[in-house]
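Renewal narrative, Specific Aim 1. Our central claim is that a sequence can be written position by position from structural information alone. The example that follows is taken directly from our test logs and has not been curated for this report. It begins with the structure tokens describing the chain, in the order in which they were read.
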């Protein structure tokens, strides 16, 4: 077995025991990146020189008997909308093509404090708006399972980097499913924590009430290890909860006998690929064999989730992206005559089509005369959706659903914006309700991965890890593609 094929837990154990050095680990992963990156294009930038220097220092720490962090010997990648001091952070947009981070996001700071080694920055849909990673200003990313298909989005680069075994763990962001949908398409694990569980300080905002930094990894155990580091309160983010963070690894490999799993009837709708429903049914049968109790539940306002999201998220995006105006930082048009033309031409040239579409949608629903009709009404429906989950989660411990209505589609497929928006139909509700959700592989369909999703109570990521670990042990992990 090659070093790059090991899980994060295995890498750390071998590093701590002295079996392999941090430098060997980093070199192995960069060799893998050099071998497959031309096919996948997961990354927008690499930091090989800095990473190797950090690895040498880590080897010295081990040699001198100094304290080693919880992520010592583990390489990671971060999404291009998470700031790192001295590193280009573009959110995959022309308008930030030369922007360099002037501070570390809180999650990056925490990773560094625990001796993680960040190998590079991954590709994404521009400002996290998309389901394909095709709206990136830099390039398209391919799905490692089939190079002619999308990896999902917006965290497509993050998911592909794990599936291609270029890193064992990658951080993404999830506003409406942007960690879980690409995790499903790429056959890896993807966790969106509860809103307020992980600091958003240093995450470029798309929709501030929905955004959450999440984790993608090869195994549920690696998710738990990473969450132990990045979760918790932060003085720089007032929206982060001070709720105590448990040791998530204590939820691994536990008995789930008697655990109640809800199946919402609204998630098994016409248009869902019947083979994907079979995958969920297989997971249900596996959970029954493990002693879990399956309960049919109802989330009646689910049908309003997509329209609600596509009123609220663009409205927040319209407000958040107003700061990119060519004045303080980022791209500035060369052809302008006055302040208004500077604003208009900078934003016209700097933003891509999907970002412009959402800014215009958001500006429209926030405008006088439409605020009450759209934005205010959507906020009321969001409350109803949240209440649905609160009610159901008093009766069951977790909710099981599909992740996406389809498998990864072709890069060449031309889909309308509405068709792409509907890709998030099963994931959006968790963001609207602010609850945690996790995607893990349920099997293969036409040699492509299909994920299943668990959603849980606020700040109860532990139960999601518990049931996911049990299911992972029962059905087995997917063998990731070799890409030879």
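The sequence written for that structure reads:
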């Amino acid at each position: 077995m090659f070093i790059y094929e090991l899980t994060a837990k295995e890498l750390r154990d071998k590093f701590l025991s002295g079996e392999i050095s941090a430098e060997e680990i980093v070199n192995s992963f960069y060799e893998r990146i050099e071998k497959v990156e031309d096919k996948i294009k997961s990354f927008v930038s690499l930091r090989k020189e800095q990473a190797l220097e950090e690895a040498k220092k880590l080897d010295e720490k081990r040699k001198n008997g100094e304290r080693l962090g919880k992520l010592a010997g583990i390489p990671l990648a971060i999404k291009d909308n998470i700031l790192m001091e001295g590193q280009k952070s573009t959110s995959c947009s022309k308008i930030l093509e030369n922007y360099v981070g002037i501070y570390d996001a809180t999650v990056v700071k925490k990773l560094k404090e625990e001796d993680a080694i960040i190998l590079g920055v991954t590709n994404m849909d521009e400002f996290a708006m998309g389901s394909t990673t095709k709206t990136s200003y830099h390039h398209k990313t391919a799905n490692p399972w089939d190079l002619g298909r999308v990896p999902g989005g917006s965290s497509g680069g993050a998911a592909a980097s794990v599936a291609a075994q270029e890193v064992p763990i990658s951080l993404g962001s999830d506003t409406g499913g942007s960690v879980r949908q690409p995790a499903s398409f790429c056959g890896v694990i993807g966790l969106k924590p509860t809103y307020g569980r992980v600091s958003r300080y240093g995450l470029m905002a798309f929709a501030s009430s929905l955004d959450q930094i999440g984790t993608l990894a090869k195994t549920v155990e690696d998710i738990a290890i990473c969450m132990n580091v990045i979760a918790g309160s932060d003085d720089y983010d007032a929206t982060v909860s001070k709720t105590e963070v448990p040791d998530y690894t204590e939820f691994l490999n536990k008995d789930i006998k008697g655990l109640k799993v809800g199946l919402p009837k609204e998630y098994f709708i016409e248009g869902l690929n019947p083979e994907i429903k079979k995958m969920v049914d297989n997971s249900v049968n596996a959970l029954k064999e493990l002693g879990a109790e399956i309960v049919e539940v109802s989330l009646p306002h689910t049908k309003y989730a997509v329209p609600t999201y596509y009123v609220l998220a663009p409205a927040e995006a319209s407000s958040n992206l107003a700061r990119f105006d060519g004045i303080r930082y980022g791209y500035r048009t060369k052809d302008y005559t006055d302040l208004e033309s500077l604003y208009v031409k900078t934003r016209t040239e700097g933003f891509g089509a999907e970002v412009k579409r959402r800014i215009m949608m958001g500006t429209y629903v926030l405008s006088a005369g439409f605020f009450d009709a759209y934005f205010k009404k959507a906020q009321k429906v969001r409350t109803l959706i949240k209440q649905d989950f609160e009610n159901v989660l008093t009766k069951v411990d977790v909710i099981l659903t599909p992740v996406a209505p389809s498998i990864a589609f072709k890069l060449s497929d031309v889909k309308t914006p509405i068709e792409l928006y509907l890709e998030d139909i099963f994931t959006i509700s968790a963001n609207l309700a602010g609850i945690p959700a996790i995607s893990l592989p349920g099997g293969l369909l036409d040699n492509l991965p299909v994920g299943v999703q668990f959603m849980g109570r606020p700040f109860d990521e532990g139960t999601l890890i518990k049931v996911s670990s049990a299911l992972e042990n029962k059905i087995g992990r997917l063998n990731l593609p070799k890409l030879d």
